[in-house]
Amino acid sequence: MEKVLIVDDDSKLLNILKKGLQKYVDQFEVLTASDGEEAIEVLKRERISVLVTDLVMPKVSGLELLTYMNQNRPHIPCIVITAHGNPEFKERAAREDVLGYIEKPFDSNELAWEILDRLDRFDEDSYPKGMSVNSLLLLTEMEKKTCLLEINFSGKRKGLFYFNKGVLYDALYSDLKGEDAALEMIGWDHVDFQFKDISKEDQKRRINRGLMPLIMEGTRFKDKAIGAGNEVGSAEVVKTEKVSEQKRDSSLQDQAEEKESELISEAVSLAEGHHFQQSQKVLAKLLRINPRNREGWLWCSRVLGSMKAIKSSLKNAATISSEDPLVVLEIEKLNLAENKVWTDRVWHCPFCWSPLEEKAGKCYYCEAHLFVQEKFFTSKRTANQGIINKAIERYEKVIKKEKNADAHYYLAMAYLNMEHWGEAFDQLQKSKKLAPENKAFIEQLHALQSYMDVMGIVYQKKRSDLSKASKRVAKRNKILVAEDSSDTRKLIVAILSRKGYAVLEAKDGLEALSQLNNEKPDLVLLDIVMPRMDGYKVLSIMKDSAIFKDIPVIILTGKDKVFDKIKGKMSGASSYLTKPFDPAKLIDTINKCLR
Which of 13, 192, 316, 338 is placed for a possible disulfide with 297 were both Cys, Cβ 3.0 to 4.6 Å? Predict the structure, then answer.
């Protein structure tokens, strides 16, 4: 099991992150430390795959911890989390393999995605890229650190940077001092580094410019030097290498296109599963590689939550390919939404991706209902069936790949728009089961139950209500066998399984209620005399429940008195069988109750 160490002096944040990352427990274990000193002790005794650290901490700071990592654990990728944001550093960190960057406040899912991305690249036997001088300078500025930053490049070149409260005062390299030394070292990559204490009195201020202008000038200086160096060479050398260069360029082009294809596939898959933040990150990587990727801008318009950002993304897509049918369609949806939405913040239709105001109950474009509400049951059905069918295919694909409560919920809404009541109810139950803490799912399930009661809609699935896939499911009715005798239970299971039924088992009344809540069987075979809770109590609870009251119940018991049969009927049982039973009669009774 991979282990991730998160270091922050905010104990509340650590608890929130640890709880939020619990859903990824099958992929990595989370360890925590309150400062760099404690983190180093953890690193000495544990095999850590990814380090996540704050910058400003007591005792040993984040930068000092990164120094320790660079010297002792250079193969372990690190992620910086900080409230002291710097957009330039964030952009640079995104391009480096070892160093990730997340600005506070952030969502635990955003951190999880960054961690998983680092774990994918982690290989203890191979050292990935190290940090660059530029990133180290920006980090030191962000932490407002007073220190001497010692740089070692390729084991040959050494330099020094002097900081006072995050301000770069001086630099030394070879015979150079001040800005000349800094400009020479800016742009060095994969460096070893060390932070040393220094007092303000030891510093002479030779650098009076801000850090970012200095970095920009140094980077331009390096680019010009490289460009000039590339021009050196005889005409014959250029001629002899021209063919191989063309082949290399062609190969690189193929690799770039393959990478773009992989990224767009990943982004689309994430978007379809409603992992919008992660999808945005992948699309950002894609568009850094190729800013003219039309499909990338198109999908940006579908995962961003701002009307301005959506409009800008579609403008870019149209600039690249104005006649593309998908771009034209998305612009049509945007134009329709602009006449309906009065705020910049929006969400997207789960069926057609059209921008919607946050509380919209019906899509402006495909006219699908998005929530269980009274208007749906009282208004004419106008949803675009072609769009709904494609959405069903999309969400069915998602739930085959992952446990996704949102996918089950919107699959339920899609079925509801097609009046497939049984399928909608089943999918809502699955979304509730996957996210029991989500009150919205519970409310929607109860609302659908109530409206179906009022409208007199039968819960039992009908062939006319089912797709081909759900018809196959209907043939395998699910039966719960609640029986405390293991021998009797095994016999019943064997009989029902041979007849093609899907069988659930419970050995007492409480376990029967748990199975009812989790699986919602089509019929219950219920013994009366059971430990912890008897059959009559289970039956009473079922009949008082709006969800379970219509499930047929066959009482199966050793009691053969007339009074027991009458009591069973009065309790709401559909039928009553006495043990020992005739298997043929059992099957016949079940078939009658399921009609």
Answer: 316
User: What SS3 state is found at 33?
Assistant: strand
Last residue of a domain, one of 112, 134, 156: 134
Q: Which two tokens stand for residue 32?
A: 């925590």
Domain that holds residue 324: 264-356
Task: For residue range 131-154, list pLDDT tens digits in order.
Answer: 678 878 877 887 777 888 888 887
Q: Are 289 and 259 in contact (CB under 8 A)?
A: yes
Helix/strand/coil (H/E/C) assignment for every residue in 134-156: HHHHHHHHHCCCCEEEEEEECCC
Exposure of 428 in the CB half-sphere (CA atoms within 13 A): 26
Q: What is the pLDDT of residue 182?
A: 92
Examine residue 372 and state whether it is found in any structural domain, yes or no. no
51 membership: H or E segment, kind and range: strand 50-54
CB 182 within 8 A of CB 149: no
- DSSP per-residue codes, 450-479: HHHHHHT---S--GGG--HHHHHHHTS-EE
Q: What is the pLDDT of residues 453-494, one digit of tens each?
A: 655 565 544 434 434 433 433 446 899 999 988 888 888 888
Residue 7 is predicted with a pLDDT of: 94
Length of the chain, please? Answer: 595
pLDDT at 469: 38
115 and 183 both lie in a single domain: no
**What residues contact residue 67 under an 8 Å CB cut-off, 6+ apart?**
193, 194, 195
* Mean pLDDT of the region 108-120: 77
Q: How many Å apart are CA 415 and CA 350, to the nearest integer?
A: 13
Q: Tell me, what CATH number does 6's domain have?
A: 3.40.50.2300
Average pLDDT, the chain: 79
Residue 349 near residue 356, CB atoms below 8 Å? yes
pTM of structure: 0.42
b/e 168-198 (16+ beta carbons within 10 angstroms → b) = bbbbbbeeebbbebbbbbbbbebbbbebeeb
Question: Which strands make up the sheet holding 192-196, listed edge to edge?
Answer: 176-177, 167-173, 157-164, 147-153, 192-196
- Give 283's contacts (C-beta < 8 A, 6+ positions apart): 263, 267, 296, 299, 300, 303
10 and 128 assigned to the same domain: yes
367: pLDDT strictly greater than 50: yes
Cα angle: 105, vertex 108, 111; to 5 degrees: 90
Domain CATH code at residue 406: 1.25.40
CA pair distance 340, 567, nearest whole angstrom: 59
H-state helical runs in 357-480:
374-378, 385-401, 405-417, 421-434, 439-455, 468-474
Q: What is the residue type of 273?
A: G
* DSSP per position, 68-88: HHHHH-TTS-EEEEESS--HH
Provide the pLDDT for residue 82.
80
Q: Is the separation of the CB atoms in 164 and 200 below 8 Å?
A: yes
